[in-house]
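Lab notebook: predicted structure, single chain.

Context: the supervisor wants predicted structures on file for every construct in the current expression panel, including those that have not yet been purified. This is the next one on the list. No modifications to the sequence; it matches the entry in the shared construct table.
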Amino acid sequence: MKKESIVLLKKLLSSPKNIVIVSHKNPDGDAIGSSLALSLYLKAKRHNVAVIMPNDFPEFLKWMPESESILIYDYKTKECDDKIASADLIFTLDFNALSRVDAMQPALEASNADFVMIDHHQEPDNYARFTYSDTSICATAQMIYHFIEMMEDLHLINQNIAKNLYTGIMTDTGSFRFRSTTSTTHRVVAQLIDTGIDNAAVHQNVFDANSAQRMQLLGVALQNLTILKEYKTAYITLSQQELDKHNHKKGDTEGFVNYALSVKDIVFAVIFIEHKEEGIVKMSLRSTGDFSVNEFAKRHFNGGGHKNASGGRSELPLDETVSQFIRILQSYKTQLTDAK
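Prediction complete. Output recorded below exactly as produced.
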């Protein structure tokens, strides 16, 4: 963030404000963690803060400090619209295009508030008065740590803020194993642990509270794993029928795609998940090394995200989506076989 923006934001935040914090549809650990951490920090500065998510978030994140205070736009639309309309400042976290908030978009576009974007995805839109965008940083939660640092308020990071930041960084780095995890990330995490949080307990809360049905659904996903050796690619499919049979809940398929990417010699992995109600097939794409799933998703599947982790969608039926994907792969064969 530019020095003049930091100075002006410090001035704006020097007196109590009505502040709204929003993140993207289908919020993940980084979206929830960064939003709750920023909220707790701003409340410590005596601001009136509301955290709003477009729709509900997974059960495995509902232990997080202050998560019960989150307003879900789908459930409390009028209250959320009123909060947005009366806001002096609106922070948008972990996304950089207002289309990512789905039904909340018109309310945000109608707001007279000053917008602050804090995000690490590529190609940000130009809607915010203040923009802190850095695609080299592994998680928006890490950016919130640096934002608090810019505000010269690191002393305000307590254990609740630290737990939320740690969760956001941990989940968006695949428990610190993705290439985006830098030495700076580890230094930030060390500072968070030094507040006294139990980092092992955070990991258990997120990853070790699986229902039997989620584990059975994972078994189905692995049974459906297909390897395309000639393209160094693996993919998983899950139909609506398979989801329904295992009482699928939001977040149950989180991380499944990483099992496909973990197969030896695979550089590109995709999971295709059928959503009959929305009439689409949702896709999570992962890669290692030089192959950009961000460019692949943007070009072919109405998506995008990061170089090695992106999302996409298709309005074709599940089997046709997979067939289309395999046809498209043919033009990437050289790129995939040469990927490092």
